[in-house]
Amino acid sequence: MAISWLLLILLALAVIGYFTGRSRALSSAGGNVRELHSLPSYYGYNVALTALVPALGLLMIWLLVQPMIVNSTVSGLIPDQALPEGADRGLAMSEVRRVSDGLDGAVAAGAISQAQASNADADIEELTQTLKDAGQVLTQDITQPILVAAQKYRSMTTTGSVAMQVVVLSLALLGAAFAYIRTHKEFRARNVVEQGVLALLLLAASIAILTTVGIVLSMVFETMNFFQLHSWKDFFFGGTWAPNFRGGSELSILPLLWGTLYISLIALLVAVPIGLFAAIYLSEYASGATRSVAKPLLEILAGIPTIVYGLFALLTVGPALVSMFGDGGMLGVGWMASSNAVLTAGLVMGIMLIPFVSSLSDDIINAVPQSMRDGSLGLGATHSETVRSVILPAALPGIVGAILLAASRAIGETMIVVMAAGAIAKFSGNPFEAMTTITTRIVSQLTGDTDFASPETLVAFALGLTLFIITLGLNIFALYIVRKYREQYE
Amino acid sequence: MDSKAIKIAANKVQVHYGDTHAIKDVDVEIEDKTVTAFIGPSGCGKSTFLRCLNRMNDTIDICRVQGDILLDGEDIYDKRVDPVQLRAKVGMVFQKPNPFPKSIYDNVAYGPRIHGLARNKAELDEIVEKSLRRGAIWDEVKDRLDAPGTGLSGGQQQRLCIARAVATEPEVLLMDEPCSALDPIATAQVEELIDDLRSRYSVVIVTHSMQQAARVSQKTAFFHLGNLVEYGETGQIFTNPEDPRTESYITGRIG
Fold first, then answer.
1. For chain B (length 255 residues), average pLDDT per consecutive 10?
2. Are B111 and A379 in contact (CB < 8 Å)?
3. What residues form the membrane-spanning segments (chain A) (predicted)?
4. Does the CB of A386 have a partner CB in chain B at under 8 Å?
5. Domain annotation covers residue B1
6. Is residue B49 part of a domain?
7. Interchain contact A447–B (C-beta under 8 A)
8. Could you give the CA distance from residue B236 to residue B159 in angstroms, rounded to a whole number?
9. Which residues of B touch A (CB under 8 A)?
10. How many domains would you assign to chain B?
11. How far is CA A402 from CA A257, A367, B154, in A?
12. pTM score, whole prediction
């Protein structure tokens, strides 16, 4: 029985539970709704939820835990010498799963019988041929230990899922019965249902938080692996980035960090003045009609996928800059050799950040109370003096917060720099040269054929974790500043 | 009470907010060096009329003002008059204390700096001290002029706002329910201050408290539904009103 059938049965049970619970409550009150503690539907919901929620929760946990247990048991069955040359246990396990799926498929297609599939002494060559003929995908010929493991895997999975269906369904029935018996006119169904819903809300919130924790932990473990293979001193304090998949790499974050910060700085130099001035215009001077047109238009910029910005940098901004600063360009200075440069990436990233800065600043400027404007105008200040001397200083902490948030976006931005910044890691102050960033290097270290055991690959996690910590720090600092500012007026 | 020079003369003033006719045909003459109180039920237009006197209504798009308002015989709605200059002459204190998020010193120095009233730092210091003294708050803040104005108590903030308004040397001071957010002690302090200010300025105060109007003002105007119902000596209005609507209001029958 597939999971979807199980879900449908659970759902049907919940619906039945709703109606029986509701009618039991009504009949306990002799059909008079006012005798009931809660509205009749609450009694129904109580039965439905008590049946559904624990069963679904168990189902979810079971689906997560069962493969882990099966994997670890089966993987213990494969002797070390049975592993193919150079392959590790993970590869053997995926072969086991493939064989097991193949057996399932062959049984379903009628190519072999259930007994044949479970027969540990089966002729391996014949079985391989049968499976291949039945159209099952096998990457290599089946070996004896793999077959045994696959059969064990199959039987455990089957037993497990039957057990799961039985346990989940009986839990649902038990829940429904328990709630049904409790249903009585005195029973406070409304409070119970509300508590249940509260628990669901709490669960949703904690899933979001737990995911963050999970992401951080996975990064931390891989980073620890990396530091076992590579010296942390070189990573944090070395001066060269020279990965070499044959070993002996120099993997220092500093040149990458320099590139990241340099490009982000240029991006902010573009985005902050333009975004801030746009926000001042929109919030203080624009008429209602202009604002209602201009603000959504500006925010369209925020919805453009960053890869499109990357294309724009590659095809338009880069060549345009080369035609100005390159050899034989308009300015005749010959500073820029290729369109991949810090300046290209910085400019385009700045354009990407404009709506981010302007939208946040606009909100913050609008949050400055009207009484501040009145107070200043009432003293004979012009509108512009009011903006400059009262509104901007009042909004400044919030604007700084917005800029910090923009900075953390810039530091974490990937696609634009992948396409426009280049791939050379170095310390240089020249904005016309190609440079590279942390995110670009993560992409290049992890794309292609990778082996998760070499420091050259694992360095991506160390880079990612460092990046995460930097942006997290910036975000926390920015939120702290923004919140402090909000308190002033409340 | 002997009659004084007329500071502001309003003649047939009409105010429309969009389709709402907020002020209808108001004629009033406000005397110099006098406290004039505007009283009336909520929504009667007294605050709107007050805001006409320094053209603060200009900042509201849908507001239209018709009629003449003369300040020292000059029409303030004339095209040649710069509303910004006018507001330097006709200062305003608002219902809710609204100190800027700056230091106490900078709050008071804001107006003088904008209008270039001080030639150097020493002069500015002098203006700030004088204004804070006139705002009856100098003794409380003289040791912490660098502290933020928003950190003061409500009553202190309102007196700071009055000091800030006084610092630009206005000729008229408009106050829109200046005590409505204050406790009785702070209210008493502000009222005392208003009485002092009368020696130098013409003060117009909008208030919901009839006791307050009776305590601080010499002239009182009663507004009702956008009309100026009665205007006269405060004593006269409160003891012997001519119009039955005024009498109903001050005895608490309408409001």
1. 77 90 91 93 89 88 89 90 90 91 92 91 94 90 92 90 92 91 85 89 91 92 91 92 90 70
2. yes
3. 43-65, 162-181, 196-221, 256-280, 300-322, 334-357, 458-482
4. no
5. no
6. yes
7. no
8. 30
9. 54, 56, 59, 84-89, 91-94, 96, 98-102, 110-111, 114-115, 150, 161, 164-165, 168
10. 1
11. 22, 14, 31
12. 0.75
